[in-house]
Design a protein that fits this description.
Elements: H1 6-16, E1 20-24, H2 32-41, E2 48-52, E3 58-59, E4 62-65, E5 77-80, H3 87-97, E6 101-104, H4 115-131, E7 134-136, E8 142-145, E9 150-153, E10 163-170, H5 173-187, E11 191-196, H6 205-213, E12 220-225, H7 231-244, E13 248-252, H8 266-270, H9 273-283, E14 286-288, H10 292-304, E15 313-317, H11 320-332, H12 342-352, E16 362-363, H13 373-382, E17 388-393, H14 397-410, E18 413-418, H15 428-433, E19 438-439, H16 442-465, H17 475-485, H18 494-502, E20 511-514, H19 517-527, E21 531-535, H20 543-546, E22 549-553, H21 556-573, E23 582-586, E24 592-601, E25 605-612, H22 616-620, E26 623-627, H23 632-641, H24 659-675, E27 680-690, E28 697-699, E29 702-706
Parallel strand pairs: 1-2, 1-5, 2-4, 5-6, 6-7, 10-11, 10-12, 12-13, 13-14, 15-16, 15-17, 17-18, 18-19
Antiparallel strand pairs: 3-4, 8-9, 8-11, 20-23, 21-22, 21-23, 24-25, 24-27, 25-26, 27-28, 27-29
Length: 713
């Protein structure tokens, strides 16, 4: 699916790089219309700025026109700052004039929670799509072309000289031109563009991010997002960003989930919406951060340091305590501080002459502010195990120049942990000017370095492996789907679920259906004792809770007794339930229990879950998640991610399990989820028994629920 067209990108281009701007609702008062006009007029030597307001002949030294129609030209962008009920008329008039794009500052739409305002907002989106005149907003604060110093915004804040390679896209205008802009100015972090998208009636985060991928002056895309209109469009941007090598760093609102959900499957109960987003961001290389400072500092680090040639971090400081705490934070984040090689250690010791400590981290005491500091840094940077140098100090201008020179000499990444006052001028100003990434606490430094390392490692693997695609369905799979849907009910029984899974090559435990105690005994004798008995019903999905499962039945009498108990418990638990008898199954031995499941997120689509099996998965929530479909490499990484899965590698004399068959099954189930998309609601295989190496896997229990059944959401 093509999400973007050339005319759409051209319209965004006019919005972000205008030669002419009209402000409808301009006013001499410093309200939204007045602030927008004042901001735009700062670029009047490069941009033709028109005020539109029939109540004035002149505003802020420029002619005020009665309407857009009477402007001397069709403006590249129209800023709309009028009451909500006049917005549509202004847009239509602007389109007739030939305007290229619009920024709707006006509020009073979907954010009001009123049905008629939501309808009007949808109308704005439909108008933009039909007319080709694209819209940012409504309820936004506009945008800034920072690299060309054009501020098309109703914010009162601006910042000259803030140019840099970070494109900032925020749904919240007050956040973009508030804390982000303020912190960026304070920390010397530069932007190419600042874009607020507001209610996103038309253009959304993904649209602007897609434009920034083509912008040669943008190396990193930073975002503040409350929700995505279309997750598939956003993830397509993430794929393209991986190809271009432009990281996306994001704050995504919604980490906490309020309220409980009723779920028919274990999988649905285990996968909160935010956990799915976390997993998908990691799967698609999106760096998720928690707060304003992390967003800016991590984006700045990624923009101004290259891919590390090796993961090792070298830390040098004037203080043993500072360097030790920094090492602790790096270790906690999963980073590596390798020991110094002999050449580096001996070289630093020759400088220190018994003072300080030649190690990694290095405590070089007063030598951090001496003429010998460049040699110390060089010894550490040149150690082949070190890919990044961290300087933790608060020296003056001389030290700052030394650090900048070392960065330029090696071409490796250099980060600075500033240990002095944030208001300091000496040293700090030069580091900011040279775009040395600066952190102020060891934990944020460590998180930033880990994000950088993880991103580059992920991208290297992803470029080698590509993204997964599901193959076309086979005739056998088409027939299995038709049979399952032909049953005319959302939930399949265990045996029906296994029959569907078999069409995707998922093997199950041997079993026989029985409708009487004696038939169950005969089936058990055919399979061989011990056996398991389970009720077969599409209406009783949690069989253990209903008391309709019996395991390890060793003889005919135990089978007869179990059959009677299961039937009695089923009638007591759900008198109206449809009962297809019992399933008599072999007891699968010598296998490790795991769970594989799929839940269908309303935005992300099918999400695959893998975890340790049985009831313990609910106790520890030891699971891995990925958006479907997945590659074999992603399947292997899911297995490695789950702590309990280490038992499958062989533990205390137990044989290693068939991890290759398990990974293959994860891939097959991810294909099934895609090939059933639009019909599948939930899927559980719990437990799946992973047999010893070379013997495959067997599904012991399974549940498939089609749309229309009980849902996780």
């Amino acid at each position: 699916m093509a999400f973007w067209t050339e005319p759409q990108m051209a319209s965004i281009g006019k919005m972000l790089n205008p030669n002419s701007i009209a402000i409808v609702g301009a006013t001499p008062r410093m309200q939204y219309g007045g602030r927008f006009l004042a901001a735009a007029l700062k670029a009047k030597d490069r941009v033709r700025v028109y005020a539109v307001n029939p109540r004035y002949d002149e505003i802020m030294g420029v002619t005020s026109y009665p309407s857009v129609s009477e402007l001397p030209e069709a403006p590249d962008v129209v800023a709309v700052v009028v009451p909500w009920d006049q917005v549509r008329d202004v847009l239509e008039e602007s389109h007739r004039k030939g305007a290229g794009s619009a920024i709707v500052i006006s509020a009073g739409f979907a954010e009001r929670g009123l049905a008629d305002r939501r309808d009007l907002q949808r109308e704005l989106g439909a108008f933009a799509a039909a007319s080709g005149m694209r819209i940012s907003g409504p309820n936004c604060l506009g945008l800034a072309n920072v690299k060309n110093d054009i501020w098309a915004t109703a914010s009162s804040r601006g910042a000259a000289g803030l140019t840099g390679p970070i494109g900032l896209v925020c749904q919240s205008g007050a956040t973009a031109f508030g804390p982000f802009l303020v912190r960026a100015v304070e920390n010397g972090i530069g932007f190419s563009y600042i874009i607020s998208t507001g209610n996103e009636a038309d253009l959304d985060f993904a649209d602007f991010a897609r434009y920034l991928l083509d912008d040669p002056d943008t190396r990193v895309i930073a975002g503040f997002v409350e929700g995505f209109k279309r997750a598939d469009k956003f993830l397509e941007v993430a794929k393209l960003a991986a190809e271009r090598g432009k990281p996306i760093v994001l704050i995504k609102i919604g980490r906490s989930e309020l309220g409980a959900r009723a779920a028919s499957s274990h999988t649905a109960a285990l996968t909160g919406a935010d956990a799915r987003w976390d997993a998908v961001f990691a799967q698609y290389g999106v760096v998720r951060v928690r707060n304003y400072d992390d967003l800016l500092e991590v984006a700045h680090l990624l923009a101004h340091t290259p891919k590390p040639p090796t993961p090792g971090i070298a830390v040098v400081s004037h203080s043993g305590g500072i360097s030790s705490l920094t090492a602790d934070m790096c270790g906690e984040a999963g980073l590596d501080l390798p020991p110094l090689g002999d050449a580096a250690r001996d070289g630093i010791n020759a400088i220190l002459k018994g003072f300080g400590w030649a190690a990694n981290p290095a405590d070089v005491t007063g030598f951090a502010n001496s003429g010998s500091f460049p040699q110390i840094m060089a010894h550490m940077s040149d150690d082949p195990r070190m890919g990044t140098l961290v300087v933790a100090s608060a020296g003056g201008d001389d030290q700052a120049r030394q650090v900048i020179k070392e960065r330029d000499r090696t071409g490796k990444g250099v980060a600075f942990l500033w240990t002095g006052s944030r208001d300091a001028k000496a040293g700090l100003a030069l580091l900011k000017e040279a775009r040395i990434p600066i952190f102020y606490t060891p934990d944020t430094l460590a998180r930033g370095l880990k994000s950088r390392l993880d991103y580059h490692s992920w991208r290297e693997r992803r470029l080698a492996e590509g993204f997964a695609t599901a193959p076309p369905r086979t005739a056998l799979q088409d027939a299995a789907i038709a049979q399952a849907l032909g049953l005319g009910r959302p939930a399949l029984s265990e045996s029906e679920s296994k029959a569907l899974l078999a069409a995707w090559g998922v093997a199950s435990a041997r079993e026989r259906r029985a409708n009487s105690a004696e038939a169950a005994v005969a089936a058990a004798q055919q399979l061989g004792f011990p056996v398991a008995l389970k009720l077969d019903s599409p209406d009783i999905l949690h069989k253990t809770e209903a008391g309709v499962v019996r395991l390890n039945l060793g003889d005919a009498e135990e089978v007869r007794t179990a059959y009677a108990e299961i039937m009695a418990n089923a009638r007591a638990y759900a008198p109206q339930a449809r009962i297809g008898g019992v399933s008599v199954q072999e007891m699968v031995r010598d296998g490790g229990e795991v769970i594989i499941g799929v839940t269908v997120d309303p935005q992300l689509g099918p999400v695959l879950l893998f975890g340790t099996g049985g009831v313990m998965v609910e106790v520890y929530n030891d699971v891995a998640l990925r958006r479907c479909p997945i590659t074999p490499a992603e399947a292997r990484s899911m297995i490695a991610e789950v702590k309990g899965a280490r038992l499958l590698q062989g533990f205390r004399g137990r044989p290693a399990a068939d991890l290759a068959a398990l990974a293959d099954t994860l891939v097959r189930v991810s294909y099934l989820a895609i090939q059933l998309e639009g019909q599948l609601a939930e899927l559980d295989i719990n437990p799946l028994m992973v047999l010893p190496a070379g013997q495959g896997v067997k599904a012991v229990d399974a549940l498939v629920v089609f749309r229309g059944g009980r849902r996780a959401e």
